Amino acid sequence: MANFEYVLPPAPTTNVKVAFGEEDLVRRSASNISPPVKQLTPVSKLIDVSKCIGCKACQVACLEWNNMREEVGYNHGVYDNPLDLTPASFTVMRYTEWVNPESQNLEWLIRKDGCMHCADPGCLKACPAPGAIVQYSNGIVDFDHDKCIGCGYCIKGCPFNIPRISKVDNKAYKCTLCSDRVAVGQGPACAKSCPTHAIVFGTKDEMKKHAEARIKDLKSRGYTNAGLYDPPGVGGTHVMYVLQHADKPELYANLPKDPRISPIVELWKGMTKYAGLAAMGAFAVIGLLHHVVTGANRVSPEDEENARRLAGGRR
Amino acid sequence: MSAYDVEQGDEVHPGNPVTVDRYTGGARINHWITATCLVLLALSGLALFHPSLFFLTGLFGGGQTTRAIHPWLGVILFFSFGGLFIRFWRANLWKAEDGTWMARLRDVLGGHEERLPEVGKYNAGQKVVFWSMSILIIVLICSGILIWDQYFAEFSTVETKRFAVLIHALAAVTIICVWIVHVYAAIWVRGTIGAMTKGRVTGGWAWRHHRKWLRELVGKR
Questions:
Q1: Which top CATH class is A22-260?
Q2: Which among A166, A267, A268, A274 is the top mutation candidate for probing chain B, defined by the most B β-carbons within 10 Å of its own β-carbon?
Q3: Model ipTM?
Q4: Which residue from A114, A151, A262, B213 has the least number of CB within 10 angstroms?
């Protein structure tokens, strides 16, 4: 049996903090902050796709813990239900049937989709509301709904198409990595509920080590391209996958091969922001200087006289 | 001479000084609705454009209401400007003298109007402002609808929205610069504000800045 007995720091019994706070932030949307003095240990969720049986216990646990309810929907003739992430469903199982051309085996690739908690989060970069998106020093990217204005910029910033805006309160929702549970030494609800331990949670280092053992096992069973999905384009993620076919992540319901913050978003939130303010300021300053130098453009008495001669001639 | 440049309601009143009706009451109301919308759009848009300006959301009752109201202001502006466009487009068609006027921009900025060709109701600078506004407002409403996620989220892909939001920001910055030019010109060229508030200018103002238009008006009488 592979090692799933991961080690979390023991649950604190004294001085229990109820939640992460300002002192734990490394990034805050639309704000400049100095990094905290005391850094938390980076954590990670590891999802081993090869172990997932598609039972959706994680989806149920997620709804339960976050006190969300989905409307009763429709059966679209596929296992995916709901078909996509919603403001209530922070996670969904995505089922792909793939015939491996080498072995001719039908492989059922089931990926638990949800926020990847990027080290370089595109949502946070795009967010215009100060503090509506924060990143804790343990790597968790969290939305502060009191500050969210519902503009949907986070959706444009996200390389994984994760956040969803609620039609009810016009706020953005996504997986919190159960930051409220992690703050008090618990693992995320989905990991807790997973019957096959396909979802495990611990420090990022531990999870990488755990993944190594899993990949070794998969390789020994013929999955030569098995590997860890921890995409460097976004600085790595705090939700990682063990994939049987890590060379082809697109197989798993279009998991991006090399995700990164879109250059369009970088341009919008970088150059445009500064050049735009500079341009507007320059126009205003040039106007002011021009007025100082040339003075007002006034109508002279001769102009009035000329007009009178022109118009008055036919009085 | 065809009266290409004279708009409805334009009239010259001999007297001392000569006064010239430049804008009807309808045109002025139309203008100020557009102007109010543009200023409110700029303030609410800038609030979401740069973090240092986020405090401007306070003017609109917070971030949520700023986000909600901004696109509606855009819709009002679009139709209001549409009214201005119908009123003014003909007199803003590019004429031969506009090229000459533009080529002598140095004299324009220096206030040497005597070295410039006589121009009609609008000079080349005003025409550039008019057409820039027209084009930018179309760009802004189109890109704006693409990123109006409250109602139109499902009609475009995220990638399209990324382009739309960038184009929207660039067009907005440009239109604010055009607006600064428009407002500055109105302040610098004394006697202009009255055209926008009372609808009238003096004969001397028309002689100095829009002589061709004045001649036409006189000739029409």
A1: alpha beta
A2: A268
A3: 0.93
A4: A262
